[in-house]
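Deliverable D2.4 — example input (structure tokens):
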């Protein structure tokens, strides 16, 4: 499975199954773009019967309006975003409304979810964070939307249950405590090291800033991983159930 196979030319989609449109934020960092393309290829390999397309909200091609304009029939947009915010609430519905030839639905963002908690645990272990000791900062991008903060707090709670240590969110931008502020508070409240969990879909400036904000173990971003593939496909299957019966025919089952 090559990356090119999930980025087809402008050909109308005629398959009975809804297309799966992965919607990434976009980044100027070549490593981020490469990681997202790798994730798209893994999704396509896991469900070869689906028409998997990769689209971006900005900065990278192809852009979402172009991808939607090349499709017909039905599609499910799966945002590669970790919580509710302006992109999920406004940008995606606007883009979908601009493709009237397409019957489409928008899946929930990836977070919060128990599968992300497990993937965060894996990344922390890879970074050398000791299990069951100290505490963890869930380092997130940040948003002005209060629902995005609620989603980050919910993911922190899921990770705390998984790790059995305190976990609190810290933000690179936006409202709320910074990564360094949250780490400092945790260090003052509990003995042991404070690790930073990178709550980002791919590498980039935010992930680097979060890792540099505290002198302790810093986990890599979520990245292309089988657990993330499972979550994407679960979001697709759940959202596709909201399509009309004919459009949702022959849907693959999602395995959680």
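Example output (designed residues):
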């Amino acid at each position: 499975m090559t990356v090119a196979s999930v980025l087809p030319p402008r050909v109308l989609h005629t398959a009975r199954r809804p297309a799966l449109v992965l919607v990434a934020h976009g980044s100027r960092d070549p490593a981020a773009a490469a990681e997202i393309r790798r994730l798209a290829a893994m999704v396509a390999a896991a469900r070869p019967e689906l028409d998997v397309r990769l689209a971006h909200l900005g900065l990278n091609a192809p852009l979402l309006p172009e991808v939607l304009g090349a499709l017909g029939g039905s599609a499910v947009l799966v945002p590669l975003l970790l919580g509710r915010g302006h992109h999920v609430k406004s940008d995606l519905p606007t883009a979908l409304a601009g493709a009237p030839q397409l019957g489409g639905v928008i899946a929930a963002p990836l977070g919060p979810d128990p599968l992300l908690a497990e993937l965060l645990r894996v990344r922390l272990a890879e970074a050398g964070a000791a299990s069951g000791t100290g505490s963890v900062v869930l380092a997130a991008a940040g948003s002005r939307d209060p629902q995005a903060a609620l989603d980050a707090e919910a993911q922190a709670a899921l990770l705390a249950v998984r790790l059995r240590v305190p976990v609190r969110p810290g933000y690179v931008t936006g409202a709320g405590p910074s990564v360094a502020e949250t780490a400092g508070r945790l260090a003052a409240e509990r003995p042991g090291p404070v690790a930073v969990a990178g709550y980002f879909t791919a590498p980039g400036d935010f992930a680097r800033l979060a890792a540099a904000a505290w002198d302790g173990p810093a986990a890599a971003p979520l990245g292309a991983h089988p657990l993330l593939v499972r979550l994407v496909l679960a979001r697709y299957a759940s959202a596709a159930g909201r399509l009309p019966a004919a459009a949702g025919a022959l849907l693959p089952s999602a395995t959680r």
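The longest helix spans residues 146-163.
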